[in-house]
Amino acid sequence: MANAKPPTQAVARPQSKLIRVIAIVLLALIVIVGLAILIVWLTIKPKKLVYSIDDGSIHNYNLSNANHLNATYNFILRAYNPNKKVSIYYDKVDIVVMYDDDTISRGTIDPFYQPKRNATRFKLNLASHDVSLREEVARDLKVERTSGRVEMVVNLKARIRFKVGVWKSRHYHMKVSCAPIMVHFSTSSKGFQRTICDVDI
Ligand SMILES: *[C@@H]1O[C@H](CO)[C@@H](O)[C@H](O)[C@H]1NC(C)=O
Ligand SMILES: *[C@@H]1O[C@H](CO)[C@@H](O)[C@H](O)[C@H]1NC(C)=O
Ligand SMILES: *[C@@H]1O[C@H](CO)[C@@H](O)[C@H](O)[C@H]1NC(C)=O
Q1: 130 CA to centre of ligand 2 in angstroms
Q2: Spatial contact of 164 and 46, defined as CB atoms under 8 Å apart
Q3: Which residue, 86, 129, 165, 194, shows the most beta carbons closer than 10 Å to its own?
Q4: Is the CB of residue 60 below 6 angstroms from any atom belonging to ligand 1?
Q5: Transmembrane ranges (predicted)?
Q6: Nearest-CA neighbor of 104 among 131, 126, 72, 124?
Q7: Same domain for 135 and 40?
Q8: 117 Cα nearest atom in ligand 3
């Protein structure tokens, strides 16, 4: 009668031991992986990319009575990568210029590679070719023009990849929004207020 207990215990023991060993191994793995991620993160120390519009002006402005707009825009876009370990591939960059929620110009930047701790300036030469504006938008533009400058928005959409050492990341979508940009109607760009953009990856 007393013999009935030990066999059941003997069966139960190795099982609970096994479960404990598995739990310990799993826990150790989680801790090791977590530490590895932390160490990688601390060595790379990713920092946000910094974009700004450093200059902007409007030329050849002509808004017809039928609310068709012709103009050219010169913007200086500055892209700064503050990272010491991360460089960036820009595989596709689309630019949109907006006034009052109406798109007045589109452009692109050629694919480029940005090294670590690098600042690059891009001259964006954009234009409106006979762009049809909504009635109220055209009215706002006419009124604002009399002050010698207008408020515009420059948005960028980019497909980028990060590079750390020899490792390259997957593609990320990056949205950059620069607003408000006070753009002058003159060749002299003095008084232009540098605008820092919002960056969203
Ligand atoms: C604007 O365009 C219209 C039509 O093309 C032209 O008649 C007019 O002279 C232009 N105005 C200016 C200031 O260039
Ligand atoms: C804009 O330019 C086009 C030609 O590029 C011309 O046909 C049109 O009349 C111009 N419109 C204005 C408002 O100047
Ligand atoms: C940034 O990188 C570009 C492209 O590689 C290079 O032409 C430029 O000189 C670099 N600028 C600085 C400040 O290092």
Answers
A1: 5
A2: no
A3: 86
A4: no
A5: 21-44
A6: 131
A7: no
A8: 14
Cα separation, 70 vs 190, whole angstroms: 24
111 lies in the same domain as 25: no
Neighbours of 183 (CB within 10 A): 24
Do residues 79 and 28 share a domain?
A: no
Name the region of 37 (left: φ>0; alpha: ψ -120 to 50; beta: rest). alpha
Q: What is this structure's pTM?
A: 0.78
* Integer Cα distance of 77 and 91 in angstroms: 17
Task: Quickly tell me which residue has 């049809």 as its tokens.
Answer: 132
Q: Which residues line ligand 2 (CB under 6 A)?
A: 62, 64, 68, 70, 129-130
Output the residue whose Cα is nearest ligand 2's atom 9.
130
Same domain, 149 and 99: yes
- Residue 49: CB atoms within 10 A of its CB come to 20
**Whether residue 62 has its Cβ less than 6 Å from ligand 1:** yes
Q: Give per-residue pLDDT as tens, 77-129.
A: 999 999 998 999 999 999 999 999 899 999 999 999 999 999 999 999 999 99
Query: How far is 157 from 167, CA to CA, in rounded Å?
Result: 24
**Relative to the alpha carbon of 132, which ligand is closest?**
2
Cα(117) to centroid of ligand 3, in Å? 9
